[in-house]
């Protein structure tokens, strides 16, 4: 917590950040926070800085929104003299302390610390306590298309599985495998098999440059297709899958057909 003298600042003189770090502010969490503040008061003051005769929110945006919900006229605050860089750093560190951050939100914090906070990866590691590997993987994740990041946030595909697929250097091919992985809940193990399959195909192991099948004398195996087992989550070849999803009526017809 930042130390300083606690003041009562009029709510009407406070402006929210121009760039809200959280993509979404959960109204239910704000309501719960408001009820807590109603019962026990504000335990941690917000952090503000002076800008053009007013106050800009640096840290504590949800506490501010909870006070507005309660109809409060003032809020406890610590007012600091901060430049833009320091403001970005403080906001970023505070956001990392929140629970239930999505992968995209966490990645965005590290990206802002680097681009707007002017921090090196080493400095980010020191300030956040995260390993260089973690910072690097999230910075790489932050610049991926929104569709890809959203699938990780919705837990349709894990970050580990996505990183395995990123070894596919062709963007069209990557998106093909990514969509298949997100739709079927592919594991990292399955993703690695797909990547191996892609690399063999692109290198001409399965097919010649003119599109002809490989020479049978080369010993090339038939091109396998892998899916994820719904029970053990391991990799299984499609030709070995024995069960399919069917409605009771179709299942009955199949058994007695």
Query: How many β-strand stretches?
Result: 7
Which shape, going by the Cα principal axes?
elongated
Uncertain residue segments: 216-222
Distance between the termini: 70 Å
Largest sheet: 5 strands, mixed
Average pLDDT reading: 83
The strand order across the widest sheet is 1-5-3-4-2
SS content category: alpha/beta
Order of helices and strands: EEHEEHEHHHHHHHHEEH
Strand fraction: 5-15%
> How many H/I helices?
11
User: Level of helix content?
Assistant: 40-55%
Rg for CA atoms:
26 Å
- Structural domain count: 2
Structure description:
The protein has 257 residues and is of the alpha/beta class. It folds into two domains: 1-82, Conserved hypothetical protein from pyrococcus furiosus pfu- 392566-001, ParB domain (Alpha-Beta Complex), CATH 3.90.1530.10; 146-256, no CATH class. It has eleven helices and seven strands. The strands form two sheets. A five-stranded mixed sheet has the order 1-5-3-4-2. The protein has a two-stranded antiparallel sheet with strand order 6-7. Helix 8 (159-165) packs parallel to helix 10. The longest helix has 15 residues, at 188-202. The radius of gyration is 26 Å and the shape is elongated. It starts with 5 loop residues before the first strand and ends with a helix. Residues 216-222 have low confidence and may be disordered.
